[in-house]
Amino acid sequence: MSLEIALITGMSGSGKSVALRALEDAGYYCVDNLPPELLSAFLALEHQHHGNRVAIAMDVRSGASLAQVPQALQRQREQGVVVRSIFLDATTDTLVRRFSETRRRHPLSHDEGLDQRRVLVQAIELERELLADLREHADVIDTSTIRAAQLQGYIKGLMSATPQQLTLVFQSFAFKRGIPVDADYVFDVRMLPNPHYEPGLKDLTGLDAPVADYLCQQPEVVQMQSQITQFLEHWLDLLASNHRSYVTVAIGCTGGQHRSVYLVERLAAHFQSRWVALRRHREMDARTLP
């Protein structure tokens, strides 16, 4: 059996420890902050002693050697290793709040000036620059507004997808809680008829049959679904031929409960016959957690 690597990278404070715990629960042998120089030797050793599934977290603490990672991973792929790369991100405001709440020092923050927020923001923006190449070649998960249990579920969902095949992630969200920073494409459906104002539908969701029945009868909804479908069908083959592993399509409405949820379900159902299609409902997933 071939070796499978899950590489977890991302911004400091974005949830890499949570992601590693999820992978450990899924049966991966996990290592945090492995120096990139040791990657090849470590993988050879772990393949010999610990099985075929390894999860490694790397981040900006590796310093200048981090630039070696993309080439090292490509060499592993050429040797038949299955490589899955996940980048955890969050908005700057979210990261500042998390560091402030935990009173942790950012690994790139060395200035003890009076304006601690400014120093922290500068460190975060520098980190974004240093990690830009790793982000470009990974599936990105925005952890700004999701809980730890949601992140664990998202990680396990991605790892269950068929390796070496384009994976589509359809995500519903509420504009009032911010646009997901992990989205490759964002579609605004707030102009569509809103079940929130229909008697008996307000407290339901786009997963419920009465809401789905209402929306599928609205010409604007049908047209929007058709146009998004045509757009994606036109470009997905080119994305796949360009060695893209993941594409995240975010559908946003006002509350992330009715219209966006309905369209995510319909789009995922349409594309799953050809591609791996995962569903995420950012606001609803948070509500269903204990």
Order of helices and strands: EHEHEHEHHEHEEHHEHEH
Do you know the CATH topology of the largest domain? Rossmann fold
| Helix count from the secondary structure assignment | 10
CATH homologous superfamily heading of the largest domain: P-loop containing nucleotide triphosphate hydrolases
pLDDT average, as an integer? 88
Pfam families: PapZ_C, RapZ-like_N
Organism: Giesbergeria anulus
Binding site for ATP: 10-17
Binding site for GTP: 59-62
Strands, helices and their partners?
Elements: E1 4-10, H1 16-25, E2 29-32, H2 39-49, E3 53-57, H3 69-78, E4 82-89, H4 92-102, H5 116-136, E5 139-142, H6 148-160, E6 167-174, E7 185-188, H7 209-216, H8 219-241, E8 246-253, H9 259-271, E9 276-281, H10 282-288
Parallel strand pairs: 1-3, 1-4, 2-3, 4-5, 6-8, 6-9, 7-8
Binding site for ATP: 10-17
Binding site for GTP: 59-62
Domain RapZ C-terminal: 167-284
Describe this structure as you would to a colleague:
Pfam families: PapZ_C (PF22740), RapZ-like_N (PF03668). This protein is an alpha/beta fold and 290 residues long. It has helices at residues 16-25, 39-49, 69-78, 92-102, 116-136, 148-160, 209-216, 219-241, 259-271, 282-288; strands at residues 4-10, 29-32, 53-57, 82-89, 139-142, 167-174, 185-188, 246-253, 276-281. It has two domains: 4-160, P-loop containing nucleotide triphosphate hydrolases (Rossmann fold), CATH 3.40.50.300; 167-286, no CATH class.
Please name the defining characteristics of this protein.
single chain, 290 residues, alpha/beta, Rossmann fold, four-stranded parallel sheet, 10 helices, globular, ATP-binding
